[in-house]
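tool=predict chain=A
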Amino acid sequence: MQILVADDDPVQRKVTVRWLEQWGHAPRVEATGEDAWRALQDISGPCVAILDWMMPGMDGPEVCRRVRAATDMDPRYLLLVTAKNAQDDVVRGLEAGADDYVQKPFHPAELRARMETGIRLMDLQQRLAERVAELEAALADNRRLRRLIPICAYCKRIRSDEDYWTQLEKYLGRNLDLRFSHGICPSCYDDVFERELGELGAESDGPSGSSPDE
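tool=predict ok
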């Protein structure tokens, strides 16, 4: 995994990079808070960062504050490295948005243990995000399926969930609270209504050549 190392001390940077490489990670090194902030904004950038508290321009806590204020960023795990050991300083760093902290001087095993905790959390969040995306896709498919309405190709009746066949207007009226006014379109008038009127007229005239008195 790519790990961001932000420290203005070249010796400490070199030591930390060597440890990370030994642990199988790919370090990305920055010397200032501004560069660290830009690296964390990169959509393909590191999701775990080891930030020195004291850096020129923008310090570690300020980087943490900017990351937490950026609502459009992917989750980042921020490990703050500091020589400060007063309780108020530790609280201030955590309130700025750091997930954890390591006090200098520290043993490499401690740094590795805290960093691996962050990596596990980031992996978990990634899996959860993928699972949420899968569930959202499944819900979208379900909504599309629920919009499929079985309708008879001939009489245009709709089959309900209870397996009853209902006229279209009754189904829509019951489910969508719609009301209908009925009429006859020109095509149906020519094809059906006019023909039926002609048949009714022929029936009322009776057989050809006969009269009502016969």
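The mean pLDDT is 82. Residues 132 and 138 are 10 Å apart (CA to CA).
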